[in-house]
Amino acid sequence: MKKLINDPRHVVREMLEGYVAANPALAMMDEFHVVLRSDLPEEPAQRPVAVISGGGSGHEPAHAGYVGEGMLSAAVVGDVFTSPSVDAVLAAILATAGPAGAVLIVKNYTGDRLNFGLTAELASQQGIPTAIIVVADDVALRDTVARDRRRGIAGTVLVHKMAGAAAARGDPLDRVAEIARSAASHVVTMGVGLGSCTVPAAGRAGFELGPDEIELGLGIHGEKGVARGRLPPVDELVDRMLEPLLSELAVSSRQPVALLVNGLGATTAMELAIVTRRALATLTERGVTVERVWTGNFMTALEMPGCSLSLLPLDEERQELLDHATTAPAWPGNGRTGQVKHVVAPQLTPTAADAAAEGPLSPTMRGVVSRIAAALDAAEPRLTALDSHAGDGDLGASMMRGAEALRALADGSYETPQRLLRDIGESLRRSIAGSSGPLYAAALLRASHILTGIERPTDAQWLDAFEGAIAALQDIGGARPGDRTMLDALVPASLAWRQNGWLAGASAAETAAAATASMRPRMGRAAYLGDRAMGQPDGGAVAVAIWLKAIEEALA
């Protein structure tokens, strides 16, 4: 287990201290793990209805992230995945509420219900009328337990928002409670986990999953789901998650809803955006109008990979409350949606008509290009492994995209060597990500220019074009021989070609690429690793040797 912590016994306190230190509108209690607004009136009679929530820690940014004007008055935080104590909840009520009363928003877990419920009784006896709102939004349990026995998960955040907004506009206790209770009874959530999480005090994962397994319908405490299955493509998975949500809501055609796409802690923003894309598309196809959408980490389970989807039917008042301003640091904004706008890209370079004219070298050039594409495809595992050793591991995939671009060249591209090199350069520039695409494009465009008007270049003219391409790489990339780059295969190839002919050049590239394993990198991502990058040859140099060898084999 690797976590950025000191003592597992102190993680909650130290977390809250850091959070409050970075948010001056918040304060915290000395004796209890309670975060509260720092701007509340000192006189209890002047305080509006207090909205308080909480539960175990490990769900960040819940619950402290939702403390602020227009949302929670206080958050009461227990140990990791453990309900806070009655004393802590009561302290939060006394510090933030007055005669106007308090609304306690509780996720449907036994410990939370008991501790918050008992505290409500104690607060009422001290003259603070207190209402309890229990959120049980987990539809995964709909075939397992009664509705009032389901777990409370990410949909709770939407209840926080509406209750806090109602209190901020001055609604009385009964009305704030009614709004929160109504939202809690209608919000539905479905979660999926791609792996487990590690509680700091336990030091080990709660369960194990195979490489292609998922837990469908899980909660927020590192527990297993209601079913285990294979990991399908994300579009299929999102549709499976939405099905019980829509069935539970039984929303009418064009019914407006709010959508919350919640990460469980280890899911990247990239993945959550892909989930959001599919959820919006599917809901639209089903006739559901998504008026508000939020994507991000709202209620997590430590570092669990996975996500949940929450839906809440909207009316005019709910939309108004969701749109109400708040200073809570973790609330992302109004979530307004709009139709995706597509803009047609301008024509960057004029494209000649695809005249399928044949030149004297057209058949030969087709054979060479075909052999290069096949060689790059076959080398993908090797190039990926080499690039993973010293870079970001994308070289193999980039070269496969380059191979695909080569196979997609138009017939007219093979008319002359000049046009072929130009078209390959333009194609690779568009298809290969990172630095490889523009580097290859610059080299090929320079070589193309050197062969302008030459239908059947001599061996010397091909060599001039090859050396021109190398010069372009040095000009645009700044690398030199010895920096452990593709140049360390290209330059020896050109020298051997000039001295002993083309076949010697291809062989020299292969030998030189292997020798880069003992070079200390001075350019690119590998340079950041220093000596740690040594021991394996440079992936870019090996790729050069691969396509030069393919040319040799095609010409043979």
TrEMBL record:
Q: Name one GO cellular component term.
A: cytosol
Signal peptide boundaries:
none
Listed A to Z, the keywords are: ATP-binding, Kinase, Nucleotide-binding, Transferase
Q: Annotated Gene Ontology MF terms?
A: ATP binding; glycerone kinase activity
Give a yes or no for keyword ATP-binding in this entry.
yes
Q: Name one GO biological process term.
A: glycerol catabolic process
Name all DhaK domain ranges: 7-331
Q: Where is the DhaL domain?
A: 363-553
For this protein, the record's PROSITE patterns field holds: DHAK, DHAL
**Identification of the protein by name:** Homodimeric dihydroxyacetone kinase
What is the species of this protein? Chelatococcus asaccharovorans
